[in-house]
Amino acid sequence: MASTLRVLGIDPGLTRCGVGVVDVGRDRSATLVHVGVVRSDHELPIERRLAMIAAGIREVLDTHRPDVVAVERVFAQQNRNTVMGTAQASGIALLLAGEYGLPAATHTPSEVKAAVTGYGSADKRQVQTMVARVLRLDALPQPADAADALAIALCHAWRGGASGTATTTAALTPAQRAWADAERLARR
Amino acid sequence: MASTLRVLGIDPGLTRCGVGVVDVGRDRSATLVHVGVVRSDHELPIERRLAMIAAGIREVLDTHRPDVVAVERVFAQQNRNTVMGTAQASGIALLLAGEYGLPAATHTPSEVKAAVTGYGSADKRQVQTMVARVLRLDALPQPADAADALAIALCHAWRGGASGTATTTAALTPAQRAWADAERLARR
Question: pLDDT grade, residue A76 (50/70/90)?
Answer without folding.
Answer: low
